[in-house]
Amino acid sequence: AATERSLVLVKPDGVRRGLTGAVLSRIEAKGYRIVALQQREATQAELAAHYAEHEGKPFYAPLLEFMASGPLVAVVVEGERCIEGFRSLAGTTDPTTAAPGTIRGDLGRDWGLKVQQNLVHGSDSPESAAREIGIWFPSL
Ligand code: DAT
Ligand code: MG
């Protein structure tokens, strides 16, 4: 059994819409443990590091602008295979087509159908998780 840690963000749209509790509730109901949690506005340095893989893409600047548009909630989640497991809970990137039963599929339907306003982020590999936890929680 592989116990992993994943870095989850409730993005500014989720915080603004009062959906932080709904997201955390799904994480806990799945059996994952919340190791660390912080609500605050992200710095440009954190966002640039977090989304370094997307630098240069057409959606990069609007994505960073959106991610800086209000407080977000950064969470370290722990559980068996929780990296893949949380991605599955979150649903596919675009909320307009994310499956029902997923966070993005059930809750991500508002806000003018902008792809970046998809409520949550979850690490996509153990390497990403370690890197991202280092960005948001350098003391962990
Ligand atoms: P995910 O968040 O599902 O891991 P990603 O890492 O490919 O998706 O992209 C990071 C974020 O960037 C994503 O949550 C929303 C935004 N994004 C991705 N593709 C996009 C696109 N084609 N247009 C606008 N925003 C996009
Ligand atoms: Mg990603």
Q: Give the N-terminus to C-terminus distance in angstroms.
A: 22 Å
Percentage of residues in strands = 15-25%
For this structure, what is the CATH homologous superfamily?
Nucleoside diphosphate kinase-like domain
Can you tell me the CATH topology? Alpha-Beta Plaits
- Radius of gyration of CA atoms, rounded to a whole number: 14 Å
The biggest sheet, with number of strands, parallel, antiparallel or mixed sense and barrel status, is:
4 strands, antiparallel
Number of helices: 7
3D structure, described in words:
The model has no long low-confidence stretch (mean pLDDT 95). The protein has a single domain (3-136), classed as Nucleoside diphosphate kinase-like domain (Alpha-Beta Plaits), CATH 3.30.70.141. It has helices at 12-16, 20-29, 44-50, 60-67, 82-90, 103-107, 126-136; strands at 3-10, 33-40, 72-80, 120-122. It is α+β, with helices and mostly antiparallel strands. The protein starts with a strand and ends with a helix. The protein binds 2'-deoxyadenosine-5'-diphosphate (DAT) and magnesium ion. 2'-deoxyadenosine-5'-diphosphate (DAT) binds at residues 54, 59, 63, 93, 115-116, 118, 121, 124.
Question: Could you list some keywords that capture this structure?
Answer:
140 residues; alpha+beta; Alpha-Beta Plaits; 4-stranded antiparallel beta sheet; 39% helix; 20% strand; globular; binds 2'-deoxyadenosine-5'-diphosphate; binds magnesium ion
